[in-house]
Inverse folding.
């Protein structure tokens, strides 16, 4: 989902990961270009060295035939004959699962497992722990995936939901351990000041990863890496962690950092892109990211980033293009009131200077 755009860089990054011992790769039908990129990179023997996971989008399954159509497309993209871990992607609640059952998903999954096309069946989930627990009990799942990090320790499924799944003997995969990079980069100086007081000096990314891996109920952490530097750091950290190794002193530091970040983040968007594409062309995650940078880096730096990332395009992607159609909100894992937040972004980021600056920048670009 967060791979480099250049195909050669993609292949080098993914193949280096395998050679360095990474043995689990996660993608999805909805991650545009990701399955195909992974399939190309894992050709030539790499596929046999790893466990491969991908996801079926339930909202795209309208009839029984859609199950086979989507799955066949995934196998073709991934250049493989099997999926080791097959997710029901972003399963929202028991009602959504029952709809799939009514369409015939259970015999379809059973047949795929008999054929060896799907090895393990599970689901990914965003939301509260109540519905998560109900989902765990409606089917004999073989694994699950939740969002978990030190900022979300008591949000969504949280620590208690993680422990509930682990106590049932279910492998728990963790997504967003760095919360889309927000726990690793462009942090308030006060956060760096807190980490500087730790007895051991580590990067914010390493601290965030260690928090997740410290929990014995976590089977693995999925970290989106788009550079060789990130890959090397993550591999180095993974090679030295052990569960239950962080003391109460360190957890007190996590609590301090969490308090700081909760004050500074205005819109809790993780940049997952499930809300995209927008019918009006708004780059929703980028708009939110730039707006959040306003709280961290200052208004001028955020405005510069907003102009560069949403306006200096062939077609503008800025927040004021939103017409409040609501098509994005039903796909948002964080349940963000996207239309309302985009209106806030437009008001604060597209003030008096925005239009003349946009005009001048685009005129300069044409020249």
């Amino acid at each position: 989902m967060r791979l480099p755009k250049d195909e050669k860089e993609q292949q080098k990054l993914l193949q280096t990961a395998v050679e360095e011992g990474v043995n689990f790769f996660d993608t999805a039908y909805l991650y545009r270009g990701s399955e195909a990129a992974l399939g190309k990179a894992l050709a030539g023997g790499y596929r046999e060295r790893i466990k491969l996971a991908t996801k079926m989008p339930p909202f795209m399954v309208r009839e029984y035939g859609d199950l086979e159509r989507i799955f066949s497309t995934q196998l073709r993209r991934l250049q493989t004959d099997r999926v080791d871990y097959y997710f029901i992607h972003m399963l929202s609640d028991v009602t959504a699962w029952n709809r799939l059952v009514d369409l015939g998903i259970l015999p379809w999954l059973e047949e795929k497992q008999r054929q060896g096309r799907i090895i393990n069946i599970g689901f990914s989930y965003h939301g509260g722990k109540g519905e998560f627990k109900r989902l765990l009990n409606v089917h004999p799942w073989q694994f699950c995936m939740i969002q978990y990090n030190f900022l979300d320790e008591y949000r969504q499924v949280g620590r208690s939901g993680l422990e509930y799944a682990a106590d049932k003997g279910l492998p728990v995969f963790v997504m967003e351990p760095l919360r889309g990079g927000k726990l690793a980069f462009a942090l308030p100086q006060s956060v760096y000041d807190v980490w500087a007081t730790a007895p051991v000096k580590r990067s914010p990314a390493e601290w965030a990863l260690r928090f997740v891996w410290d929990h014995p109920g976590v089977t693995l952490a999925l970290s989106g890496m788009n550079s060789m530097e990130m890959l090397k750091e993550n591999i180095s950290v993974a090679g030295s962690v052990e569960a239950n190794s962080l003391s109460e002193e360190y957890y007190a530091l996590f609590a301090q950092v969490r308090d700081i970040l909760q004050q500074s983040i205005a819109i809790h968007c993780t940049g997952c892109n499930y809300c995209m594409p927008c019918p009006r062309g708004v780059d929703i995650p980028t708009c939110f990211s730039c707006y959040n940078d306003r709280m961290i880096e200052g208004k001028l730096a955020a405005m510069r980033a907003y102009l560069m990332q949403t306006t200096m395009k062939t077609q503008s992607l800025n927040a004021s293009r939103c017409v409040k159609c609501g098509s994005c909100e039903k796909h948002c894992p964080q349940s963000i009131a996207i239309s309302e937040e985009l209106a806030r972004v437009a008001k604060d980021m597209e003030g008096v200077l925005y239009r003349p600056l946009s005009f001048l920048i685009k005129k300069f670009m044409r020249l």
About this structure: The beta strands are 24-26, 51-56, 83-88, 118-125, 143-147, 172-175, 218-221. The chain is about 45% helix and 10% strand. Residues 359 and 366 are 11 Å apart (CA to CA). Residues 284-366 form one domain.
